[in-house]
Amino acid sequence: MPQGRRVATSDDLEVSAYLEIAKGLEGVGLDDDDGQQSVSEGVVVIDFGSQYSHLIARRIRELKVYSMIAQSKSTWESVKHLNPRGVILSGGPASVYEEGAPQIPSWVFEQHLPVLGICYGMQALVHQLGGKVSPGDKQEYGYAVLHQDGPETGSENDSVLFSGLPTEFQVWMSHGDRVDTLPPGFTGMAYTENSPVAAIGNDDKMYGIQFHPEVNHTPLGQDILDNFLFKACGCKADWTPGNVVHDSIKNIREQVGDGKVICALSGGVDSAVTAGLLHQAIGDQLTCIFVNNGLLRLEEAERVQATFKRGLGLNLTYVDATDRFLDKLEGVTDPEVKRKVIGEEFIRVFEDAATGLGKTDFLAQGTLYPDVIESESPENRTSARIKTHHNVGGLPENMKMELVEPLRYLFKDEVREVGLALGLPAEMIYRQPFPGPGLAIRSSARSPGKSWKWCANATGSSSTRSKPPTCITSCGRALQC
């Protein structure tokens, strides 16, 4: 992908969106770190390339247990900060007997943690522990009925995974290989019509299932994950919004100390929750900068100031740069060029505002866990390169700062829950996402001016759209969203 075309995952009109699209700016000015922070406990999901790896992590968190996705080449040093209580091995498109197929990291066996292999994960477990996996007589994709085998004497852990479940239930299959020979110490726990070995286990709390418990097509899949997390791993279910707030505030205070922090505020949920956490943690050590580029939703600037400055008492520096942005956009029609123009101008405006605050030690940004996952993906080296500086790329060298990223462990829905726990207004937490470059991209108007104001009215609340605006021919389809 050409440089400058990637848009941040977060929907905020903030530093993270603008600095990614700033034209020709080099990454200077900040110290990048690995962002690791210890948590009380969690489960590691080893990603073997499955389309469902993210979903597995989400399902675990729905059970109030923290989860982290790691690559098959991960080391114990890269995951031990999680205090792992167990490991889940994802599915994947490869066959374990092929040369170059991904392998289970050695630390999984060395740490003697409970393990649950799913699909390819089960086959990798079998293959690496001395069993045999072969191509199946036919591929199996879709619904199947799982039949539990009778319990084996001396294998009490075999029943843990299916505790409280009926002897037969529906599952979702997606595989072409099959287990022919079990590794030493393992027994079969269940089968389907096409898979004689559909679930396995041993007395060391190592399990494998050929089906996918994380998808809705396996109705009892969440119960199976629940059994693994709480009966096999002994997890405590302490990944809650309240605990996340408590731990985040503690971590922020430890990282920042008596330093000064700036945060680019947009009014979107990511920057709002980031600012809310920082404000509760360090109070007046935080200064938020809100730049009005003249391309916001109707009355956006007023709402942001009312909520954060007057409502929550944040130190807020408001910069009305409408004329600067609209002057730069005069005569520009190509949306990609607009994005770059807006990004580069934002750098300059933010730089001016931040420099006026004096020495600042930290820059806060609303990086979410999907951003982190994307950056660490070995297949997506372009994203990994961009991510190392995507929120800091255009800052001058005299603004050398360290990043504060209190949301980097959270999915979007978890950010919203944390925002509610902080007491932020529900209308802010659940508002419709808005593109970083704002109405400049939604409008095809050649020249700024009144048409931007008409667009703002057109995309405001439903009460402002009682009749079609008069600029509908210049703004086009954007008015219908």
Describe this structure in words.
This protein is an alpha/beta fold and 481 residues long. It has three domains: 15-35 and 241-329 and 336-434, HUPs (Rossmann fold); 42-232, Rossmann fold (3-Layer(aba) Sandwich); 443-481, no CATH class. The protein has 18 helices and 15 strands. Helix 7 (241-256) packs across helix 8 (269-282), helix 8 (269-282) packs across helix 14 and helix 12 crosses helix 13 (381-387). The protein starts with 14 loop residues before the first helix and ends in a 6-residue tail after the last helix.
Shape: elongated
Mean of residue pLDDT values: 79
Tell me what portion of residues adopts beta-strand conformation.
Answer: 15-25%
Number of contiguous helices: 18
Strand order of the largest sheet: 3-2-4-5-10-9-8-6-7
* Rg over alpha carbons: 26 Å
Count of distinct structural domains: 3
The CATH topology label of the largest domain is: Rossmann fold
Question: How are the secondary structure elements laid out?
Answer:
Elements: H1 15-21, E1 30-31, E2 42-47, H2 53-62, E3 67-71, H3 76-79, E4 84-89, H4 106-110, E5 115-118, H5 120-128, E6 132-148, E7 168-181, E8 187-191, E9 199-201, E10 206-209, H6 221-232, H7 241-256, E11 261-264, H8 269-282, E12 286-292, H9 300-311, E13 315-320, H10 322-328, H11 335-355, E14 362-364, H12 369-376, H13 381-387, E15 401-404, H14 412-422, H15 426-429, H16 439-442, H17 450-458, H18 472-475
Parallel strand pairs: 1-15, 2-3, 2-4, 4-5, 5-10, 11-12, 11-14, 12-13, 14-15
Antiparallel strand pairs: 6-7, 6-8, 8-9, 9-10
List keywords for this structure.
481 residues, alpha/beta, Rossmann fold, nine-stranded mixed beta sheet, 19% strand, disordered N terminus, disordered C terminus
